[in-house]
Design brief:
about 190 residues; 7 helices
Length: about 190
Amino acid sequence: MELIGVAVLIISVVVLSFEKRPMSEAMLRFIALVTAAAIVGRLIFASIPNVQPATALVLLVAACVGPVTGAIVGMLVVVLTSLFLGSGPFVLFQIIAYTVISLFCILPGMQTRWILTAYGLAAGFFYGWISNLGFLIFTDFSREAFFTLLLTGGFFDLLHGVSNAVFIWLLYPIFLRILHSFAGKQGI
């Protein structure tokens, strides 16, 4: 139960941090557009395990707009797609996973295509490991159970990481062009 309390605290801090930021109307439209694309992408690819563009779009937002904004997009994607794909306590840990992988985008060089693509591969594993904590809350939470879950989920985490890398590589120039278009309309 302590883990759930920590998760709620982290989510609250991220949401409050986002709410305190000044945000233009054009940037809110851009965030809504990317969130909608991530939701549709996650739903379209739902039949292929762990292959979906949502994480790539979250990482692109986190790297190019800001980690807090990326975390908010991730939260919205998880909550809204869970209405279609199913909901449960694991949703909280998917939100935390998106928050953590988004916050790593504050590191230097994450805005470059190669580094972000490589990070997307690693982020597939980080996301899976953090999400697995949600399943372990309702078990005996033993180390053996956690390592078993990591090993059995390793292939799916690899699929997630590879799809992240592919989607980031393909979407990066398109994403930047759209972002620059929105920024240009603001005179930035």
